[in-house]
Predict the 3D structure of the following.
Amino acid sequence: MKKLNPTIKLEKQIGEQIYNALQGQVVEEVLKKSKINSSDTYWRSSMEGHSLKVQQHLEENVDFYITGDSSVNAFSVSAEDEGQPHIVNVNSALFDLMDQNELRFVIGHELGHLINKDSKLSRLIGFVFPPGAAVPISLHYKIRLHEQLAELVADRYGFMATENIQACVTAFFKLASGLDLTKMNVSIDALIADNNERLDYFLNDKGVSRNSHPVNPIRVKALHLFATSKTQKALNEGMEQLIGILLKIGDSELDEYTAQFIASAGLIVANADGKITEQEVEQIIDSLAGLKMFPRDFLEQIAKGDVSATFSNAVQNILNIDPGTREGMINYMIHIIMSDKIIAPAEVELLYQFGADIGLSEKEVSDAIAMSIQKNYIPSINALC
């Protein structure tokens, strides 16, 4: 059977976007010269001092360690400097729990991270946004998506190391539960059936994969596709639905209507004075970022359709689900109006009309505008020149 490409195109694209957004080339060069925050020194000191180093024979220079640790875990750390060995660590608990093929999958997975150069991007992100730092919401979701896709890529390398899909599946469940499935008399067929039932929950728009690792139902299905697909095209088509789950941010009907409202209301309000500015567009996109993985694409999609119809439908559905969002909707529209630092009479008139349509009095709308001006409005420097 023809060997399939273990990479995922979207993972590469998102990784490049994040790297470029964080000015990776510049930052890495600065860090190389400054020699600060060397994670390589930290991990190597820890491994050399407290773990068992084992021999290996690979083309790439990798140091393997076994650490006496009861947690069911393994990890890899790529070398910061060219020519230095990478690190792969396996906790001793895995040797008690897993057979040889399962261990091959786990170690192959960690080597996959090194081959895919995931640590390089993680190191850059960790430097720009150290622990406790606030990550912009749009970047936060892109980072999460990249981490999840990178795990699926590493899983493929894990399979390539063993070429035993049953061992890969049992390894997943042992990592998740910490239990010996043989002693529990759990069959592989039962595991697959249970996995498919859990996957249906996510496919039916009820679940969101929120962590850095995709949920196991997605990982098992994705790896099964990689192991059984006859062509790259078949694999890519099979992955579309699974990746669609990872693209989800909101997990309710209200979230979708809210995204539609933010996009359509933003376009309508921004165009009320006859000109949509870049500041207004950026503000709409920023507001969409908490609900859509690719907010600019979503905004462009709404703009190509019937914006007024989308707006009316979204407002009606939002109010049916939660009438208490009326004030929030009017405040969002005011926020968009003030984003370009110009408050046009036509924009204010639109606010009064919308307020009346959703049951707000003229005074309530006026109070909202006045409060927003007092708290947030900053005049344009151009108006003072």
